[in-house]
Amino acid sequence: MAQFEQKRQTVEASRSQNNVMRRLMAEKSSGNIPGIYGRLGDLGAIDEKYDVAISTTCKPLDYIVVDTVDTAQMCVEFLRRENLGIASFLALDKQEKLLPYMKKPSSTPENAPRLFDLIRVTDPAVLPAFYFALRDTLIVDDITTATRIGIGGRQRYRVVTLKGEVVETSGSMTGGGRSERRY
After folding, report:
1. pTM here?
2. Out of 20, 29, 164, 180, which residue is the most buried by the measure of CB atoms under 10 Å away?
3. Residue 33's CB: how many other CB atoms inside 10 A?
4. Is the Cβ–Cβ distance between 40 and 63 less than 8 Å?
5. What is the DSSP string of 2-50?
6. What does DSSP say about strands 166-167 and 159-161: parallel, antiparallel, or unpaired?
């Protein structure tokens, strides 16, 4: 019964989040709150083979990207006034300091690509938001390679595998699995 309740709560949270996004985009369309780009996860695409990796390692995918802190404040006020719930906002004007890091050519162990470099966007203005969320996280095939690259050398890297296992620069790891239940 607890598992059913957890799934119900997940569905309810998703509905609430969709409602928040729908209402904010309506405010943008009406001209009341210009400067809203949308949900970070909707602003870019990545090859399907990397979907689990990015979903696991990129928690800010549900953040709402806006142009400025002022726009973010307007959105927060709107959500409060309309009692719509809570959302996280990412202001692009505060990400400018990341531009040099974002654009630097990456020299990585074993030529492991940065996950950030695999993202395709229609509007390059949102790239700093993706860099904020991913930084220099590398993507590799398996946990053995992730461990070797992430914490096995002189320099440490945050690394994610295609299965979504993560090796942090601190040495901590996230991963595992569970067999699917059959009902």
Report:
1. 0.88
2. 20
3. 19
4. yes
5. HHHHHHHHHHHHHHHHHHHHHHHHHHHHTTSSTTEEEEGGGSEE--GGG
6. antiparallel
